[in-house]
Amino acid sequence: MEFGVGYFPTHDGMRPGEIARRAEERGHSALFFAEHTHIPASRDTPWPGGAQLPQKYWHTYDLFVALTAAAEATSRLRIGSGVCLVTERDPITTAKEVASVDHLSGGRFEFGVGLGWNREEMLNHGTDPRVRVPVMTERIQAMREIWRHDEATYHGKYVNFDRIWSWPKPAQRPHPPILIGGGGPTVLDRVLDHGDGWFPQWRDENVFERITELRARADRYLQVQMLSVPADPKALEQCERAGIDRVSTWLPSGPWSRVEPALEKWEAAIGELTGR
């Protein structure tokens, strides 16, 4: 089992390249950045994490700008989106950004994707939340076509284009691993349909039972990575028993003086599990 960290790369915290460099130096295998283009001031959609939404949700750098900085500051660290809200993104532009970061990093990108929880945020990007599942599905399918073919075509209900050229292609062939985030009732269907793995949160309901279900239903190897794992050796042991490929914890956003104690706590839990 590998170990990583997640971080909201805010303009008033550690710079993306610096947090990436520190994570690599300390032996972590991956760093995931969160994404939100904005947060609607109405705050009508409740946040799944509690009543008070942290300010970091609307203070983050652009996801792919932050990932580029992280890629340039490191040479071994896997860098990824935790998660990219493809329901709020143009698929041709996003395919270009994913391929660019993967190419610049030498094939170190992990493409975590999700539907998103904030309905007003989705609506501001022109996506009807009622059709967000087929919208995400078509956008992922269209991006696969762009990455895999010199000349790509896609015709769907929500995505439609004839014969396009788009380079660079990703360094990882045919494309970076697509990790489907979410814990809803149909998420396993999406993982099985168009994912390379599942990317649940620790807090998702019945997550360990559903990992077993996913593997029983799969006709191919699907990796499982988990976000928001607490810095607790017992939690890590439970993940290891479940055969999870990589676990990551969210670090607080802010200066190194705030990040370092949380990182040390995570590393202490890993050390207790592994004996190193």
Domain unit count: 1
**How many angstroms does the end-to-end distance come to?**
14 Å
Q: Structural class, from secondary structure content?
A: alpha/beta
How helical, in percent, are the residues? 25-40%
Sheet bearing the most strands, described?
8 strands, parallel, barrel
Provide mean pLDDT, rounded.
97
CATH top level? Alpha Beta
- The topology string of helices and strands comes to EHEHEHEHHEEEHEHEHEH
Task: Describe the oligomeric state of these chains in a short phrase.
Answer: single chain
At CATH level 2, the architecture is Alpha-Beta Barrel
Bin the strand percentage.
15-25%
**Going by CATH, what is the homologous superfamily?**
Luciferase-like domain
Rounded Rg: 18 Å
For the largest sheet, list the strands in their spatial order.
1-2-3-4-7-8-9-10
Low-pLDDT parts are: none
Number of helices: 9
Principal-axis shape equals: globular
CATH topological fold name:
TIM Barrel
Number of extended strands: 10
Keywords: Flavoprotein, FMN, Monooxygenase, Oxidoreductase
GO molecular function: alkanesulfonate monooxygenase activity
Protein name: Putative F420-dependent oxidoreductase
Pfam families: Bac_luciferase
Question: Nutshell version of this structure?
Answer:
By secondary structure, the protein is an alpha/beta fold. 38% of the residues lie in helices and 18% in strands.
Structure, explained:
- Keywords: Flavoprotein, FMN, Monooxygenase, Oxidoreductase.
- This is Putative F420-dependent oxidoreductase.
- Residues 18-219 form the Luciferase-like domain.
- The protein has nine helices and ten strands.
- The radius of gyration is 18 Å and the shape is globular.
- By secondary structure, the chain is an alpha/beta fold.
- The longest helix is centred in the last third of the chain and has 19 residues, at 256-274.
- The protein has a single domain (2-274), classed as Luciferase-like domain (TIM Barrel, Alpha-Beta Barrel).
- The protein has helices spanning 16-25, 63-72, 91-104, 119-124, 132-148, 187-194, 207-217, 233-241, 256-274; strands at 2-7, 30-33, 78-85, 109-114, 152-155, 160-164, 178-181, 197-199, 223-226, 246-250.
- Helix 2 packs parallel to helix 3 (91-104) and helix 8 (233-241) crosses helix 9.
